[in-house]
Specification:
The protein is α+β, with helices and mostly antiparallel strands and about 280 residues long. It contains eight helices and nine strands. Pfam families: APH (PF01636).
């Protein structure tokens, strides 16, 4: 599969691929950094992981269209170079794109939080020619089961009750939909890339902010997550919206019969603490 995909990429690039390496991350996909015979670098996404592989046509096509929409904007997104959504070359959906400079941050400080908020505002200012799909909640009702590892079962029950109520009205906004520190590349103190556009959607701006906060909570703890929520509230000029913050946190619960997406108990504990903090803020 890999060799066939590399041959396809070489054809698209007009120069054979002479070196490749697997990039870190890639929950949904195999992500390969490529170098062709001209010395240029690119990135190849192969939708190898289920259940995303089953939806590879939709996901890679959406990322391709999103990158087309972002071309020429102030958002530092990759440039789409080639799409094999049907997987004719490698047997799985494939998307070839430019490689951006920078690397993810190992730690996040207040300046990074402000840079994240500023970038999110830039993303939300994009007006694509045609709207993307309405966002999908990742906190579907089948997940509304109090997890066995929680120290705050009542908070999860209150969260489920909140989500059972009608969602608040919102202004439809262009969303990254998987925005967070893990999908940002930095050069020094500047964000030089935002990647992973397969979930691009239309929805409430606070849902993007909520996902960034959840990721910060799981990765670093409540204080940074809460600081980002405050930062986004100031940057966007809007008050925090509990429904979307809670929805995103609940979305990290596994589907029935599945294991949690985090294998590290410390990450689960931080998610548990974040959800509890969000729910307590409603009192």
């Amino acid at each position: 599969m890999i060799e066939d995909a590399l041959a396809w990429a070489g054809d698209v690039l007009g120069a054979p691929v002479v070196a490749h390496e697997r990039l870190d991350g890639g929950l949904t996909s195999t992500m390969l950094a490529l170098r062709d015979s001209s010395g240029d670098e690119s990135v190849l996404r192969l939708m190898t992981e289920e259940p995303w592989r089953t939806h590879g046509v939709e996901l890679t096509t959406r990322e391709h269209v999103a990158q087309l929409a972002l071309a020429g904007t102030d958002v530092p997104a990759p440039i789409t170079l080639g799409l094999d959504a049907e997987g004719a070359a490698a047997g799985v959906a494939a998307h070839l794109m430019s490689r951006l400079p920078g690397a993810p941050l190992g730690t996040v400080d207040d300046a990074a939080l402000q840079a994240m908020a500023d970038l999110l505002a830039t993303i939300h200012a994009v007006r694509p020619a045609a709207p993307f799909r309405t966002f999908q909640s990742w906190a579907w009702e089948a997940k509304w089961v109090v997890p066995g590892w929680t120290q705050h079962p009542d908070s999860w029950r209150r969260a489920f009750d909140l989500l059972a109520a009608p969602a608040p009205a919102y202004e439809p906004t262009f969303l990254h939909r998987d925005f967070g520190h893990r999908n940002l590349l930095w050069t020094g103190d500047t964000i030089t890339g935002v990647v992973d556009w397969v979930e691009t959607s239309t929805g409430p701006a606070w849902l993007d902010a909520a996902h960034a906060a959840s990721n910060l909570a799981v990765g670093f703890g409540n204080d940074l997550a809460a600081a980002f929520v405050e930062c986004w509230a100031v940057t966007s000029g809007t008050d925090p919206q509990a429904h979307w913050l809670v929805m995103d946190a609940v979305g990290y619960l596994p589907p029935p019969g599945k294991s949690p997406m985090f294998g590290d108990p410390a990450q689960l504990a931080r998610l548990d603490s974040w959800l509890d903090r969000l729910v307590r803020s409603l009192s």
